[in-house]
Every structure is written in structure tokens, then in C-alpha cells.
Specification:
A: alpha/beta, 6 helices, B: alpha/beta, 7-stranded parallel β-sheet, 18 strands, elongated, disordered N terminus, binds flavin-adenine dinucleotide, binds adenosine monophosphate, Electron transfer flavoprotein beta subunit (chain A)
């Protein structure tokens, strides 16, 4: 018994580097360097822990432009056995509905038993893709997973989920989609030989919409939501007074609360 | 390809899930309850949705899924719902994504609401996609502002890129228009005591045997509601596991304790007290950030505070730019000193649970 574990990794603009175009007032994503979505590193770690327990393969999958290959190379360097890039112009303008469809079909094509995702991305930050994948495939899901426990003999995966005011332990039948709670899966260091392999020799498999037979089910056309407008928000005005001693600070606070 | 997962259930009559939007009306609010306890975000949404429904000339409908929901349904009527739909069955307690999603979807497909609002809690964000995907609905996550445009379309606004930008998301040709909304951004209305709407029991369409998940254990303790607090002392990674200095300050100020995600992840403070993008939005008159660096995801939750005070030993910490008053100091010295100075400064508040 060994499991095929697919991990969703997304290339995002480096959050610290995204600026606003002074002419248009729009986000200037293009100039920010592209990096792996931070929470997806933790998804990879969660996947490796599942592989440690159940045996099998971890395969990274990314839907994105051809240059998203770099995050897949990184995923392989971190310890993935293989990686797939799903790339097609037809995907342009996809919201979470077609995005999760594409990843759901990719997971099926890989014959995945488990899909692991990050909690959310730093660019679209919806957290809706993992439940979307599960819904498209009618699979079980375990979101906000703080710990994972593979039970190959039961054909189930158990996770400790973070819930409002506490936690719960939930067992799900395979196949299952897991979303790893951010901050709970410290990525292990990449072994040197994997790093070298990932960076120098590895090439991901590339699939397009045709390969997944979803040509007419993706892109702007099938996306239920659209962006009606973007407004720049003025930062909240603050006094930004820095005082030197506690007495002064106490005085300012007293004025507020008295 | 494997042969599993033919569960799309999309209606065949329309191309790509596009529907006749005129067949859909009413504004729905999901009432999230666990063990009979309603999450406050549900009441916040019910108050906000009342305005939307009135603007649209629609009914306001509350939807509750769980076991033993009579009280919850009654409360929803008292708080302004015209109608309450209840799916009442042991299969729904405790919460699980698959039975909730299937049931919710069945009710949506049968009754065709125009707008569906769900609290952006872990539960709401967990099952919303299981409704939106098969219904091919538009789902906007993490919304902080709602409105309707001149055509009666829902305008769901959400921050993008660390709150620098507010994006308006529309759903023109699909229904329902779904959104998950951050806890704390709207204010709940007081119940007016009148409950003259109707309670409708819907057919339960799920059975335990069909469920693909099982809750083995559930432990819920602290469900503090920091969104109502007038004063907050929020701790960050800088406290290094020692809550005592912040507690002293909080006691002197009669404030609630809140935390950054880093402090929550370390297990120092419960997740119910997390402020920020993936936590709560708070609006106290005073917010004291203790050992918090001021990451964008944190600022998003505290920006509605009237006055912000920062205590941090790094003069370059971004939090100082987002604070009204700050002190560059070791929190282990500054908090007790400040607590001593401020002792008795506030009239004791009633204890909020
Ligand atoms: C998808 C996503 C969602 C997120 N959602 C949230 C969210 O909802 N809320 C949230 O808070 N974060 C969130 N984060 C995390 C966020 O990016 C930051 O990592 C986090 O806010 C940092 O917490 P912190 O300020 O407590 O810790 P740090 O950034 O480590 O800052 C600690 C601060 O304490 C100061 N300090 C240390 N020792 C002392 C001392 N002795 N005295 C005084 N000061 C001291 C340091 O100078 C430093 O400024 C999210 C991140 C992601 C990727
Ligand atoms: N284009 C993508 N390619 C691969 N994985 C993705 C993609 N978009 C989202 N995901 C996965 O879904 C998670 C949640 O993303 P989101 O719903 O966009 O916040 C991410 O952390 C990824 O694991």
C-alpha cells in the first residue's frame, strides 16, 4: 500500500515587493519577483510527513504560466518525487471555480489518493481552491489541518483541525484534499543532492487544457465572478508619535480611555 | 484517469452554469451554530443583510443546519429574519464539510436564492466551496464591505494585497451570489423581541452512511469574542511565551487579550483571539500592540481601532508607522511600568464573556 500525494503549489508575486503603479494606481504585479506561495512550502512538508507514514510519492502540481516551472523545481529540490506544470493560455482570467476544476482534474489524472494544499495564497488569498478541488471531485476534505496522521490500513487520513475556540480530530476516507494550516508545518531542510537535481536536471511534465479535457470549462468565460473595480485604499492616518518614557505614554493613553 | 468523482451535478440546460438570474431572489444568511451556540458573525451578517434585502425589496432568509435548532430559529426571527429555513438532524452535529455542503447545496438548488452570505469562520470557509462549486455559483471570499449596484447586483468588496487595494467582485450571470465575510466587520443589531416570521423545516437529504468523514474528537473551550471589546492588549511573538506583562497591562486597562497569528501559532493564546486577515477584525477605542511587528496581515484586523499604541524594542518595526503612540522599549519593563501608572484609570467595565 502506498499513496500518491499531489501538492498544489502556486507561483505568486513576492508580497514584500509588490508596489502600486503611480500612474494607474493599479498593483504592479509584473515587477515583483515571482516566488513560491509561502503556505505551500508548509503544504509540501505536510505531504512529506504523510509520505513518511504511508509510503508513496509526492508530486507537486502547479497551474500557471511556463515560468512557474521554477517553483516546481524548488518543490522537487525540497523533496518531491515529481512535478506537473499545468499551463495553457485558455486558463487566463480563471477565478477559483475553473482553477479548482483544473487542479481537480490534474489530481485525478495523477491518480492521487491525497491532495495537499496551502491554507491560502498570498496573492488571491481566498482559501477556496482546496475545498473547490474536493467539491469538483466529490472527495472528502480536511481544511485548517494542524497535524496529519496517515492510516493506510484504514484507507483514511486523520487530521487535527483548528476550529473556532479549540480543535477537532477528523478522519476522512480517501481520496481526500487537505489544506495545511499556515504556521504548523515547518519545512524540513532540502537535502543537497535534491537541490542540485531540482535546479539543474529536473524538467516537469507539462499538461495543457486539452490533455485534461477541460478546454471549454476554464478561463474568464466560465468564471462566475469578475472584478468590477479596484480602489486604492488610503492608509489609516496615525499620529506615529514615539515617546521616550513610560510616563508620556501613560498620559496619552489616559486621554484616550478616561 | 480514475473513474471516481463524477459528482459535478451542474445543470445541463445552461452553457457553463449561466442561469436566468430573474429566477433567483431573496437574501440568505447562514446561521452558524455549534452545540446550540450561534457564532456572533452570523448576527452581524443578519443585521447587514437586512439593509441589503430592504434595498432590493427582497425577503431576508436565515438558514440553519444542525440538531435541535428551535431556539436558534427563534433568535433569528427576533433579529429580523422574515423566514428561517432549518435542516435539523443528528447527522449535522458536530459539523462536517460533506453533509453540510450537500444539504446546503440541495436547499440552494431547490429554492434559488439571489444572495447567500456566510461568516468567514473556519467552518464557513470550509463548506462554502462545496456549495458554490456544484451550483456553479460565484463565491467571493474574505469580504469586508457589501453593497448593491444600480442593477441590483451584489458588490462584494475585499482587500487585496495587504489592504492597499479594495477590489469589487461581481457575479453577473451565475447564481447565487455567495460571499464569506470576515468576522467583526459589521455590527450586530439587538434583537427587537418580535418574531413574526415563519420557520420552515426543509427535507434532510443526507445520511450518515454516505458521509466520507468522521469526527473522532472535538474540544472547544475559549470562544471569547474580542470583536466587541472597547480596549485590547494584543500580544505578538515578542512576548516569548510570557503573557504576564501583557496581562498586568490588560488588567490595569480593563482590556481583553488578543494576539497576532505568530503568538497564536505558538500556542500562547487561543485562536479565537487572533486579530488580522485570517482572524478577527476589531474596533476598540484603544489597541495596544505588545511585541507585534506590524505585518500587513495583522494590520488589516486592527485598522479600525480608534487609537493604536505600540510597544516594541525595535525602532524600525513597521508597527510604529501604524500606531498613534509608540515607545521603543523592552516590553518586559514597559508593560509592568505602564500598568502601574495606569492602575485605576478606567472605570471597571461589565465583564464581557
Ligand atoms: C496567508 C497569511 C495569513 C496571515 N494572517 C495573519 C493574521 O490574521 N494575523 C496576524 O497577526 N498575522 C497573520 N499572518 C502572519 C503575518 O504575516 C506575520 O507573520 C505575523 O503577524 C507576525 O506576528 P508578530 O508580529 O507577533 O511576530 P514577529 O513578526 O516575529 O514580531 C515580533 C516583534 O516583537 C518585537 N520584540 C521582540 N522581543 C521584544 C521585547 N522583549 N520587547 C519588545 N518588543 C519585542 C520584535 O521587535 C518584533 O517586532 C498571516 C500570514 C499569511 C501568509
Ligand atoms: N494555480 C495554482 N496552482 C497550484 N495550486 C494552487 C493554485 N491556486 C491555489 N492553489 C492551492 O490552493 C491553496 C489555496 O489557494 P487560494 O484558494 O487561492 O487561497 C494554495 O495554497 C495552493 O496550495
Amino acid at each position: 500500500m502506498s499513496w500518491t500525494i499531489a501538492v498544489g503549489v502556486k507561483q505568486v508575486p513576492d508580497a514584500d515587493e509588490v508596489g502600486i503603479d503611480p500612474d494607474t494606481g493599479r498593483l504592479d504585479r509584473a515587477s515583483a519577483p515571482a516566488v513560491m506561495n509561502g503556505p505551500d512550502r508548509e503544504a509540501l512538508e505536510a505531504a512529506f510527513r504523510i509520505r513518511d507514514q504511508a509510503g508513496g510519492e509526492v508530486i507537486a502540481m502547479s497551474m500557471g504560466p511556463p515560468n512557474a516551472t521554477s517553483v516546481l523545481e524548488e518543490a522537487v529540490a525540497m523533496g518531491c518525487d515529481d512535478a506537473v506544470l499545468v499551463s495553457d493560455r485558455a486558463f487566463g482570467g480563471s477565478d477559483t471555480w475553473p482553477t479548482s476544476l483544473t487542479l481537480a482534474r490534474t489530481a485525478e489524472a495523477l491518480d492521487a489518493d491525497v491532495v495537499v494544499c496551502g491554507e491560502e495564497t498570498t496573492d488571491s488569498s481566498t482559501g477556496q481552491v482546496p475545498p473547490g478541488i474536493a467539491a469538483h471531485n466529490d472527495w472528502a476534505q480536511l481544511t485548517y489541518a494542524e497535524a496529519v496522521d496517515a492510516r493506510p490500513d484504514e484507507n483514511r487520513l486523520v487530521a487535527r483541525r483548528d476550529v473556532e475556540g479549540g480543535h477537532e480530530v477528523v478522519a476522512a476516507d480517501l481520496p481526500v484534499v487537505v489544506a495545511a494550516a499556515y504556521g504548523e508545518f515547518e519545512p524540513r531542510p532540502a537535502p543537497l543532492h535534491r537541490k542540485i537535481y531540482g535546479e539543474n536536471d529536473f524538467e516537469p511534465t507539462v499538461w495543457d487544457a486539452e490533455d485534461l479535457e477541460i478546454k471549454d470549462e476554464v478561463g474568464l468565460e466560465v468564471s462566475p465572478t469578475s472584478v468590477g473595480g479596484m480602489e486604492t485604499v488610503d492608509p489609516v492616518e496615525r499620529k506615529s508619535e514615539v515617546v521616550d518614557d513610560v510616563d508620556d505614554l501613560a498620559e496619552s493613553i489616559e486621554e484616550v480611555v478616561a | 484517469m480514475s473513474d471516481e468523482g463524477e459528482g459535478e451535478g451542474e445543470s445541463e440546460e445552461h452553457e457553463n452554469g449561466v442561469v436566468d438570474v430573474d429566477e433567483y431572489d431573496d437574501v440568505w444568511v447562514f446561521i452558524e451554530e455549534h452545540d446550540g451556540e450561534v457564532m456572533s458573525v452570523s448576527w452581524e451578517l443578519l443585521a447587514e443583510a437586512r439593509t441589503l434585502a430592504d434595498e432590493l425589496g427582497d425577503d431576508l432568509v436565515a438558514l440553519a443546519i444542525g440538531e435541535g435548532l428551535d431556539d436558534v430559529a427563534e433568535q433569528a426571527l427576533e433579529r429580523g429574519a422574515d423566514r428561517v429555513l432549518v435542516a435539523d438532524d443528528p447527522v449535522f452535529e458536530p459539523y462536517r464539510a460533506d453533509p453540510y455542503g450537500d444539504q446546503f447545496r440541495a436547499i440552494v438548488e431547490e429554492r434559488k436564492p439571489s444572495i447567500v452570505l456566510i461568516g468567514g469562520t473556519h467552518t464557513g470557509r470550509d463548506f462554502a466551496g462545496r456549495v458554490a462549486v456544484p451550483a456553479h455559483a460565484g463565491l467571493t471570499a474574505d469580504v469586508t464591505e457589501l453593497g448593491v449596484d444600480e442593477d441590483g447586483l451584489l458588490e462584494a468588496r475585499r482587500p487585496a494585497f495587504g489592504g492597499n487595494v479594495l477590489a469589487t467582485i461581481l457575479c453577473e450571470e451565475h447564481r447565487p451570489q455567495m460571499a464569506t465575510i470576515r468576522p467583526g466587520v459589521f455590527e450586530a443589531a439587538d434583537p427587537d423581541g418580535e418574531a413574526d416570521g415563519e420557520i420552515v423545516e426543509v427535507d434532510v437529504v443526507v445520511e450518515d452512511d454516505d458521509c466520507v468523514s468522521e469526527v473522532l474528537e472535538r474540544e472547544v473551550g475559549d470562544t471569547a469574542d474580542i470583536t466587541e471589546a472597547d480596549r485590547i492588549v494584543a500580544v505578538g511573538h515578542g512576548i516569548d511565551g510570557d503573557l504576564e506583562p501583557a496581562r498586568q497591562l490588560a488588567d490595569a486597562l480593563d482590556a481583553e487579550i488578543a494576539a497576532s497569528r505568530a503568538a497564536v501559532d505558538e500556542g500562547w493564546v487561543d485562536g479565537a483571539r487572533q486579530v488580522g486577515q485570517t482572524g478577527k477584525t476589531v474596533r476598540p477605542e484603544l489597541y495596544v500592540a505588545v511585541g507585534i511587528s506590524g505585518a500587513v496581515q495583522h494590520l488589516e484586523g486592527m485598522n479600525k481601532s480608534e487609537t493604536v499604541v505600540a510597544i516594541n524594542n525595535d525602532p524600525n518595526a513597521p508597527i510604529f508607522e501604524h500606531a498613534d503612540y509608540g515607545i521603543v522599549a523592552d516590553l518586559f519593563d514597559a508593560c509592568p511600568d505602564l500598568a502601574e501608572e495606569l492602575e485605576g484609570v478606567t472605570e471597571p467595565q461589565e465583564v464581557v464573556q
